[in-house]
Structure formats: structure tokens, C-alpha cells
Amino acid sequence: MKFLYAMLTISLLAAPAAASPVWYSATLSGAAENPPNASPGTGTAMVGYDAATHMLKVKVSFSGLTGGTTASHIHCCTAAPMSGNAGVATEVPTFSGFPLGVTSGTYDEMFDLTLAASFNPAFVTAQGSVAAAEMALAAGLASGTAYLNIHTADHPTGEIRGFLTPASSNVPEPATLALIGAGLLGVWRLRRKAA
């Protein structure tokens, strides 16, 4: 019986190791820039970080910008969560393939964080290595001290931005919760029979 409990415990603890990316989301606006601006532009960003594969997924949708886009990237890490400014952590001057010269668009790309090309060289230098840069970016995402912004010709320091925070997609699906519940019920029944 102890073997059964040990195997169940191991399987429950091993499940997170095979977990999919942790997702972070942001609502982008001019009011979130520092200093704030009156841009009518809006946007959303979803960033998924997978520590096991060292991959970063970036999905952005934006519209209503006052000028054509000139750059977009993730900045990290501010001194306090959800406030301040920080240097660029990811590719400079912009994400590879980000739509430039437009006032609306979408973007969906994957980055290999084991490659120096996925980062701003100054960010890697400040951290000491590519691996340390990945860890710093991951920590910034987890702590709310990283933000994504979009720069335009009308707002060269940034027209819209948003701090990345844990997304609701990180909450287990109802089916997953039901499966966990069924497993716990089975363990409880086995313990009752053994008692």
C-alpha cells in the first residue's frame, strides 16, 4: 500500500515538470506608458515562457495607433512591479518580423532563449550570460517588472505598453481539476479500505 501512495505522490509531483508554458498577458495603452500619453491606440499581448524548452512565445494585436510602428519589444526589469521604465531585454531594435510602418496589426512569433540573438546584447552583458539573461527575463515576467511596448513615429519612446502579468490561462481547466479530484477520491477510498 505504501508503494501505491508513493507512486501516486510521484505522479502528482511530476505533472508540473511536463507543464506547458506559463502565460502572461497585458493590455496595451498610452495611459500605461511612462510618461502617459493620450494615444487612442490599444492592444493586447500574450507572452508564454516555457522553462523546459527555453522558448518564448509572443503574440500581439494592436490598432488605432497615431503613427506607423517603428519597434516593439519587451523591457525588463523595473525596480518595482507595474511601474517605472527599464531597458530593452529582447531583440533590438524590434522583434523579428514585427509589422513596421502600420497603425494596426498582429504578431505571433517564437523565440529560442538559448540564442543570444533573442536578446538585446546590452541586456545579456548586464546579466553576464545568455542563460542569466533568460533567468532575469523569466523572473521579471513572474514578478510583474517586465512590460511589452510598441513604439511609433509619433511616439518614439513608446505609444502603447502594458505590464505582463500571469494570465488566466494558467488556471487548470475544469477537466484537469475533475481528473485530480477523481484521483484524490480514489486515494481516499483506498485509505478507508486499508484502515
Automatic annotation (TrEMBL):
<feature type="domain" description="CHRD">
    <location>
        <begin position="20"/>
        <end position="169"/>
    </location>
</feature>
<dbReference type="InterPro" id="IPR010895">
    <property type="entry name" value="CHRD"/>
</dbReference>
<keyword id="KW-0732">Signal</keyword>
<dbReference type="Pfam" id="PF07452">
    <property type="entry name" value="CHRD"/>
</dbReference>
<dbReference type="InterPro" id="IPR013424">
    <property type="entry name" value="Ice-binding_C"/>
</dbReference>
<feature type="signal peptide">
    <location>
        <begin position="1"/>
        <end position="19"/>
    </location>
</feature>
<dbReference type="Pfam" id="PF07589">
    <property type="entry name" value="PEP-CTERM"/>
</dbReference>
<protein>
    <submittedName>
        <fullName>CHRD domain-containing protein</fullName>
    </submittedName>
</protein>
